[in-house]
Amino acid sequence: MPDRPHADLVALRARRGDRLATLLRELDLDHVLLSGADHIRYATDYRTQLVSEAFDWYAAIVDADGEAEVFVPYVEDELPRPDEGLPHVRAVHPLPSWAPAACHPRQWLTAVGGVLARRGARRVGYEGLDVVLRDGLAERGLLLRPVGRELFQMREIKDEIEVELLAATCRANEAALRRAVETAGAGMSDHDLLAVAAHDQHAAGVEFLTHGVCNVRKSSGGWFADGARLREGEPFFLDIGCYGRGGYASDLCRTGFVGDVPDAVRHAYACLLEAHLAGQDSARPGVRASAVHEAINACLHGHRLPHTPYATGHGVGLRICELPTIYRRDRMDEDAVIRAGQVLAIEPETTVEVNGLPLVLKVEDNFLVEPSGLRPLSATAPALS
């Protein structure tokens, strides 16, 4: 990345290991069996994801001392101590290539169950296991406990090094998004705009692109590019994300405009930015997540505009969408309290109708929650000149 941070990843790894060890002690577990690329990265710093569908191709076993063994789909034999930079990763073990446990459950059970047995595991936390693998391990006498939610909760409060890495990814992602919006012109397609953004994200040296969507004259939820071309006088929006150094993410969105837009669009966009600010002002330590959601939508309703039809925010970390969820109280298991140290995306959306055509407007930025309120990690959405 152009301003690639010189973060102390060894220190970060140690701090994350301490958190995981504390969680294992609290839950009375001797090992955890991980399958998500983000949880594996957090616990081991081993980078697993190769393609977007690879979320169930890998596994890792980690104990309270941070000693880990990883299972991957691209080796033929066990590789002891595969990376001198990751001395806590004892070995990499082979799994069936490019396939989840559901496709080859016996192979997975033999590989994973064998290592757990050799390590003397008895009480094992797990997240995201295929049911056949889970039941097979239980039949071998392991006491298994689901810990997916606890792992996400553990990751909510970010270390200062994590914040540094998240901010760097935001800068790269925001620069790519800004250039794509500034490049837009009548006749260009949604694919053209996403290509500009993706080029700049890759040129900045990010690890992986998480998503790239562009709404051109589609209703809410119609975010996917299909060759639609930009027209003079109309808005569009781009929502893009990526993982930067260390796997830390950024999730941003901008509404752009082609030429002079109608007054109704200008007014709606100004109201959207006002709602965005209302969300930022309300997202303070001690405030419930639903109160932030309500503040955003109350502002939109006050301007007689449609409310955001989904969560107006979420945490950001080793996933673009983590806890807390900022949504309706009745659509969440827990109406979490906003806490200092969280990194949040705030993303209001609304719709304005022009000549019978609904036009969707959206903005999204990332923020660090500090004791006094939010600090932007991305340059926040600009007003329409």
From TrEMBL:
<feature type="domain" description="Peptidase M24">
    <location>
        <begin position="165"/>
        <end position="370"/>
    </location>
</feature>
<dbReference type="InterPro" id="IPR029149">
    <property type="entry name" value="Creatin/AminoP/Spt16_N"/>
</dbReference>
<dbReference type="Pfam" id="PF00557">
    <property type="entry name" value="Peptidase_M24"/>
</dbReference>
<dbReference type="InterPro" id="IPR000994">
    <property type="entry name" value="Pept_M24"/>
</dbReference>
<protein>
    <submittedName>
        <fullName>M24 family metallopeptidase</fullName>
    </submittedName>
</protein>
<dbReference type="InterPro" id="IPR036005">
    <property type="entry name" value="Creatinase/aminopeptidase-like"/>
</dbReference>
<dbReference type="InterPro" id="IPR050659">
    <property type="entry name" value="Peptidase_M24B"/>
</dbReference>
